[in-house]
Automatic annotation (TrEMBL):
The name this protein goes by in its record: MarR family transcriptional regulator
HTH marR-type domain segment(s): 6-144
Keywords, sorted A to Z: DNA-binding, Transcription, Transcription regulation
Keyword Transit peptide among UniProt keywords: no
Coiled-coil annotated residue ranges, if any: none
Organism: Mucilaginibacter jinjuensis
Signal peptide: none
Length: 147
């Protein structure tokens, strides 16, 4: 059997991470559809970012979610229409708008979080927590090695 080099293994790891992302996305989208939620997965990514750090600007959200500014404007506009977020003028810079969650978005988190927890519990049921920590550290190191 031919020896696989580190670059080939890294390529396979990247492919596997993309497959995990796609499967988790499909699972969450199916749950949202079953519960008649009028949200896209991309909107959920924005909300998730704000659940971790509420009251940040559009560019910070774009950087965290790896979206371009025009896509982010569209997503936030749609979340405003759905009463999930609101734009608030930054007291320190009036040109800047901070994005805040509404009560409706915070209530949505309480509904979604158990689904996400269930999905990842199933995905990791036969995986040791130390292995997950090692994998996370490895991926963070690989990301840090890139320019």
């Amino acid at each position: 059997m031919a020896t696989v080099n580190k670059a080939e293994l890294a390529i396979e790891l990247g492919r596997a991470m993309q497959e995990m992302r796609n499967k988790s996305r499909q699972t969450i989208q199916l749950r949202m559809k079953e519960n008649n939620m009028n949200l896209t997965f991309e909107m959920l990514e924005v909300l998730s970012c704000l659940w971790r750090k509420n009251g940040i600007n559009q560019q910070e959200i774009a950087d965290i979610t790896l979206k371009d500014k025009s896509s982010m404007t569209y997503l936030i506009d749609n979340l405003v229409k759905r009463n999930m977020v609101k734009r608030v003028e930054d007291e320190n810079d009036r040109r800047n708008k901070l994005i805040y969650l509404t009560d409706e978005a915070n209530n949505l988190k309480a509904q979604l979080y158990p689904w996400v927890t269930e999905m990842y519990t199933v995905a990791t049921e036969d995986i040791d927590a130390d292995d997950l920590t090692t994998c996370l550290n490895l991926i963070n190191k690989m990301v840090g090695n890139l320019p």
